[in-house]
Amino acid sequence: MTDPYITAYIHDLRANGRHSGTTLDTYTDLLARLDRNLPYGLCDANADELRAVIYTDGRKPGTRALYRAAVSGFFRWGCSEERPEADRFDFDPSRYLPRVDVPRRAARPVTHDQLRDILRRGRDPFRLWYLLAAGEGLRCIEISRLDRQHITAEDTWIRGKGDRERIVPTPAAVWAAVRDLPDGPVARHPDGTGRANRRQVRERANYHLQRTLQHRGVTMHRLRHWYGTHVHRAADGDIRVAQELLGHSSPSTTQIYVDTTGPLKRAAVDNLPLPLD
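^ thats the sequence. predicted structure below, dont judge the formating
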């Protein structure tokens, strides 16, 4: 059973729209696991106990950083003076947790030849999902939320992480692929009824990429890296244009997606060299 403080914390984050549903589910799982594994539970843990369960040998820096972020947010919330009407924690042990240096990841876009082959041999609905990832920079969760009526010949309305919305120009190739589709989800459940969720889009699309098309190591996210790289180039290295098109809150995140250093959104997208022949 999840500690009521953890439940209340996640409820507050959800109500404030601070994180995506996927992130909140991850935080819930991590905090509940720590609560079970700590000698006296999470709320009564001290810094040494937290350090012992978070900074374990063999745990990757990114995972340690995720644990630290979840725990620090929880204790800041619990100690916040903005909650005078609620019980608050007397002490924040997360203040003494060491920072985690996570190596900066490099962009890993698919090659032009790989994308050409994927778009030539991929079968629908996967080919359409690949076009949306490479031609509009959509994440799997965004594809799962996308309806045909959200796409026009000019623009595509996207509901992204944390329910943040953005509008990106629609490439001609994407419009050609969707204009005759019926209203409703562009990614449907495997049985053809209802909307596919994020996991179904990711797993089915990646399976088709790697097993059917034999592009080992290629994922949907690498198609999004291709988009980020090429809109950045087409925008003459303007990181702000790439940031807005990718839906990032910070340009430092966008820099991970662009495999290059170096006017407007419409021009950037119109110049995407989608290999369709």
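The chain is about 50% helix and 5% strand.
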